[in-house]
Amino acid sequence: MQSLVPEPIEILSGVEDGEAARHFRFRFCGQSDSNLKKWQSTRPGQFFMLSVPGAGEAPFTFTTLPNAQGEFSALVRRMGQVTGALFERKPGYTLGARGPFGHGWPVTDGDTEKVLTEKALIVGGGCGLAPLVSLVEHLINSGTPPVALVYGARTAAAQVLNPERKRWQSQLPLFDIVQQGNGCQYRGTPLDLLPEVLNQVGEPERVFLCGPEIMMHTVAEFFVQRGLPASAIWMSIERRMHCATGTCGHCYLEHQYVCKDGPTYRWDKLAPLLARSSGAGALADFHC
Amino acid sequence: MQALHDMDVSTSQAITTICPFCGVGCGMTLQVQQSGAGTRLSGIAPQLNHPISRGQLCAKGWSTPFAIDAADRIKTPLRRTPGGFQPISWAEALKSIGESIRTILEEDGPQALGVISSARATNEDNYAAQKFARAVLRTNNVDHCARICHSPTVAGLKQTLGSGAMTNSASDIEQTDLIVVFGADPTENHSILGGHILRAREQGTRLIVVDPRKTRLARIADLHLQLRPGSNIALVNALLAEIFANNWQADQFLDARCEGLDALRKSVARTDADAGAEVTGVAPELVRSAAREYSQAKKAMILYGMGVTQYVSGTNNVIALSNLALACGQIGRPGTGVNPLRGQNNVQGACDMGCLPNVYPGYQAVAEEEIRNKFARAWQVSVAEHAGLTSLGMTLATLEDKFRGLILFGEDPVVTDPDQTRERRALDKLDLLVVAELTMTETAKQADFVLPAASFAEKDGTFTNCERRVQRVRKALPPPGEARADWQWLGDIARELGSDALDWESAEEIFDELAALTPIYSGMTYAGLDREHGLQWPCNKEAPQGTAILHSDRFPIGRARLIPVHHVEIDEPADDEFPLVLTTNRLHFHYGCGSMSRKSPLLERETPDGILFINSFDAHNLSLSQHSPVKVSSRRGFIETRAIISDEVPAGLVTMPYHFREAPSNRLTNNAMDPVTKMPELKACAVRVEPLPADAQPRTMDEILADEAREVAGD
Amino acid sequence: MTDYLIDSPITLAKHIGQSRDLWQLKENDSGERGWQLSAPEIFSALRSPDAMESAKQFFFAPRENIFQFDGNQFRESLPAPEPFALVGVSSCDLTAIAYQDHFFRDDPHYQARRQQALLVGYECLSPCAKGFCPSVDAGPGAREGSADLVLHQLQEDQWLLRVLTDTGARALEGLVLEKAGDAAQTQRHNQIEACIEAFPDDSHIHAGIEAINSNSVAQETWDAAGIQCLSCSGCTTLCPTCSCYGTSDHTTGDTMIRERFWDSCLYDGFQREASQNNPAGAAGDRVRRFWYHKFSREFFQASDNPGPADRYGCVGCGRCEVTCPGVIGVHSMMKKITE
Q: Which residues form the 4Fe-4S ferredoxin-type domain (chain C) (predicted)?
């Protein structure tokens, strides 16, 4: 049975990190060991349903995966009802979580569980960097850090995960770009910057994307044009969700359920699905 | 609401009743279950054998269980105290309200008191409300929201045809050759009727839409006459001019049944399609096509809405449409007629019941002594001699210290009436404001006493739909807490004041009393309504089965009157300071002040992120992108919302739905009135749209008011 | 399993009624049909697609509480109904229940109710007004395993009682019945064949299904249908296989309740995200998706699909045709697709 009842978690802290964005640290309250084990098996790119009682429930990605103490983090941008209420809650407040859900990033070979060691390039846009954080950390810890991280944001003030990016500076080449204003080396979108990046770091063997759908599509097509197989391009998409168990219907993508079949997709599988739903990404903007 | 059998159910029942939302009056069946824990609503289904809706409901109808959910309901009487509303007993509430009414009566007489009844409530409630005003308070100060929807219809059609209601029936849509939808958006507001139009269109019926907005129906229409707001008369006169010029009029019908042709001919001879175009903006060839199609169709029917009535020229707009139908003989036969689409589920009934300051039930004039005597005899009281105040009249009289006590139920004038600032000021000034409601509304928040009202599902009675069909509403559930039907608590106050005028045992007893006094209802009984799925008035000895089509053989006034009318500019055209015209509209998903529809999480989710609809040209000029935060100001105030860029509206025009208390369009609307009916010009006023900073969160009306109060306090 | 002959559904109802609440279709004073708690002494012989409401509400509740939260703990609100029986479910609605049984196989609320139910089918002998069950493999004969027991009328006073499940067999314990012979089975077979023959031409349904599966429906067709879709939610509410739901929270005092309720994929807000991004912002796309989910083989055959059973999502009851104000119910829409 797939319960729609959350498990209690408490807010440990919330740190402002970008425009209207806050990096929250949570901890499970009074969990059994077996339950904690379930959470500790979370893979980078998976997500959980966060309940803010009275306001509702919405999917969020882990920026750090649940540890032995049952602590984990998530970056949240204030956007709607659930996030609006979350921002009003103080540390110590009890919330709910269900999960982990979905397919994470392909960080190991599905058959052998061997860590993949291809040259990975990572492109994030806005709060779309959040699902990539645990991937970057995983790759660093596995001794095969990404060949580069390209991070685009609307403005310098809108950049998120600032401490993380600062920490990564010594571990991999970082390329930041903003659409408007100063405070950053490059101006434009990640797509504008990619030729320069590839000049510096060479062609990647695998690309991981997360950000506004329109950005992910154009970046994916950019790499396909350069000869990278679509099957080497991965992206994480978001949809409205009420169950994450494949029944509420809100995340339908043609015959798929993003909550179960995604949220990470290989571009060769995803592109044909999106091609049929004409409205996709039309209004997309940088958002969490 | 849970699954059908979750509890230990002892009995279950399916109660067929009428949808509480719009004037179409669709049939619905409420599934209720009794168990040890009480009676509860477990489901809702459309009524398959209903004569109009035939198994269909709109989004609002389907959401009814949320609208009457006990969780949000007011369950006991509340008294306003400095610390907020406090629950009190009915006995306390009645005693205090009674004392207050007696004081006002003694000091200022009955003219300082009034009742605003509800087009959402039953005929029985409305009959009780006007009887309470007339027989207990002894004043004709009784009105309801028809004032701001179809009062010009009642006034206009009464003059020209002798009866101010839809001349034909919903089923005529299937029999006609041409449908003219004039200033109405039926797929959104009368959705099931709108659906009938979609079906007729598919089956080859021609469709002409006259609307400044590109509505859903305009998209599939054969002709869309996209006129400038407020140019209805100019357009209709141009149509008439073309009809007369081409000799397309119905000579025989005009000879036999109308008067005033010469004057009308002469009056419209001054214009034509080309001259009209300068005022209306509608291409002359479209007007000529429409004139030919309408006049030459075997059967053509006009359906119209608030795009006709909510103007300073409202009554004359209605007269213009009547002129058009009469000139072409498109009336009195199946598939023809002049058909106002009434807004609320029972606005027709509230009018029929005489909740208007100048008429008793059945449109019997207060001005006629014989009628006054008839009611004085029937009610065994003396009655007031003069017509009473309209709702806006009561507001103005309050501001002039001439009006002190108001009893109001099932309406939210703070949200739905024009010039909200003035409305709030007047309500604040009252010595006594009693509001009966299902849930807290903006108006109830200003009351001295809030009384818990029973919803449509919790009482027996009747609603009269827009095609004059009186239909049974049946009690399916007990009212929550101490809630009572409006006729019941009105009776309680009457008894508190020493009157037994409202001492009824049942809704049926009221219906029998009102049918006896209302000639157009005289042939109706509950048994008859049950048998026939409702009866259409007039239903009397001559027409025991009711009347589907009015004016078949004769008009109640003998010959119908053609009355020349002339274009009247909107009161407040756009100018340099306020360069855009604002018109108001309604959304399919919401209804009135939203007090019922907004209880549904599904309908609430359909509320757009912003509610200012603006053309891409104007948006570009103002550097607005989709969902940009904006401030919208008029001479009367401002609101903040987000812009929705939509080519449904032409350049120069912006629209706002009026359902949302957060950004009430009635903060902006003009209170200039139709001189005949005091209908405010809700369909056009001049506004200015200004972008707010891109990252600004538009403030709700409450936030704006709080900020303003702080500023005042700071001074 | 053994099939039996029985003189009347009432005999069966009286027996079952000893241990279960009985629900069957009844007509109220206004002539409206719906499921009602019922005494065993009456059998109304109504076909379930002639009622607006299907039986899905018995298992997938229109509204229900998921849990309560007191500030610290989340407490699941699972239903615990007494055993009950639905008597007289037509084959289309039985097929829909089987479809949802699979879809909601891991849903604790659905299953808590479903496991208490005994389904007694009632096979139609003539087509209903808008139905086309034979074209979508849903009737008029009850599909294997879709009911516990199935009634099929042979004569005025003789019915074939088929036993399709162990639960059905157990429900008959204590009832002495004559075993049905080949003649009864043959008669049933012939009557069902005759019923299938009597259905009107529904080639538009077949053609529509093929057009949807070959992706050959013009976008303009969907967009035109989108103009006529009023997002009333009638089709999805009455559709016996529609399963989408939303959730919302209510707080009273210190207790917060999360409720779930039937949702509709035809609403603009169904997929709209907090950012206002809407992957299905065009009404025509939503209409397309609705029919795709009813008729696409890709949808139900997707190997890793957690959702539908191995069949079309449409059982041919025709309720959407009746309830759609926009004239885009199943017959109208399939005709538009294939015109």
A: 218-250, 305-333
Contact across the interface for C274 and A79, Cβ inside 8 Å: yes
Instruction: Please give the residue range of the domain that contains residue A209.
Output: 120-276
Neighbours of B, requiring at least 3 CB pairs below 8 Å, are C
Across the interface, whether the CB atoms of C270 and A80 are under 8 A apart is answered: no
What is this structure's pTM?
0.93
Angle at B563 between CA B557 and CA B565, to 5 degrees: 150
% of chain A at pLDDT higher than 90: 80
Chain A residue with Cα closest to C288? A277
Give the residue extent of every domain in chain C.
Answer: 4-198, 203-338
C52–B58: do the CB atoms touch at under 8 Å?
no
The pLDDT, as a whole number, for residue B68 is 83
Distance (Å) of CA A196 to CA A100, A186, A190, A205:
37, 11, 10, 17
pLDDT of A80 reads 87
Asked whether the predicted pLDDT for residue C335 surpasses 90, the reply is yes
pLDDT for B34 equals 86
CB atoms within 10 A of CB A60: 23
CB-CB under 8 Å, A279 with C279: yes
Dig out the tokens for B657 from the structure: 């739905």
Tell me which residue in B54, B59, B199 faces C231 most closely, judged by beta carbons.
B59
Of the candidates B33, B43, B48, the beta carbon closest to that of C32 is on: B48
For chain B, which ranges sit under pLDDT 50?
none
Rounded to the nearest angstrom, the minimum Cα separation between C138 and chain A is 22
Q: Which residues pair with A73 in a beta bridge?
A: A25, A64
Going by C-alpha positions, the residue among A43, A74, A70, A50 that lies closest to residue A61 is A74
> CB–CB of B393/B413 below 8 Å?
no
- Residues of chain B neighbouring C273 (CB-CB closer than 8 A): none
Phi and psi, residue A92, nearest 5°? 100, -20
For chain B, domains (ranges, CATH) are 78-148+345-536 (3.40.50.740), 151-340 (3.40.228.10), 580-714 (2.40.40.20)
User: How many whole angstroms separate alpha carbon B667 and alpha carbon B634?
Assistant: 8
Across the interface, of B45, B61, B196, the residue whose CB is closest to C53 is B45
Mean pLDDT on C290-310: 75
Return the SS3 of B453: strand
Residues of chain B positioned with their CB less than 8 A from the CB of C129: none
Nearest Cβ partner for C273 among A4, A238, A255: A238
Domain C-terminal end among A44, A72, A101: A101
pLDDT at B422: 86
User: Is residue A19 domain-resident?
Assistant: yes
Q: What token pair was written down for A246?
A: 């494949």
CATH number, domain with residue A13: 2.40.30.10
Which one, of B505, B59, B553, B329, lies nearest residue C232 by Cα?
B59
> Which residue stretches of A64-212 are H helix?
81-88, 130-141, 162-168, 190-201
Record: contact C271-A240, CB cut-off 8 A: yes
Q: Which two tokens stand for residue C249?
A: 């929270």
How far apart are the C-alpha atoms of A11 and A25, rounded to whole Å? 6
In a domain, A2, yes or no: no
Q: Compute the distance between CA of residue A226 and CA of residue A246 in angstroms, rounded to an integer.
A: 36
Q: Do B145 and B119 contact (CB within 8 A), yes or no?
A: yes
E strands, B291-386, in order: 300-304, 338-340, 359-360, 364-365
Nearest to C243 among A4, A247, A261 (CB): A247
Classify residue A172 as exposed, middle or buried by CB count within 10 Å of its CB (0-12, 13-18, 19+): middle
Cβ–Cβ of C276/A283 closer than 8 Å?
yes
CA nearest to C84 within chain B: B5
pLDDT of residue A14: 96
Chain B CB within 8 Å of residue C256 CB: no
User: Tell me, what's the pLDDT at A288?
Assistant: 34
In contact, B590 and B690? CB cutoff 8 Å? no
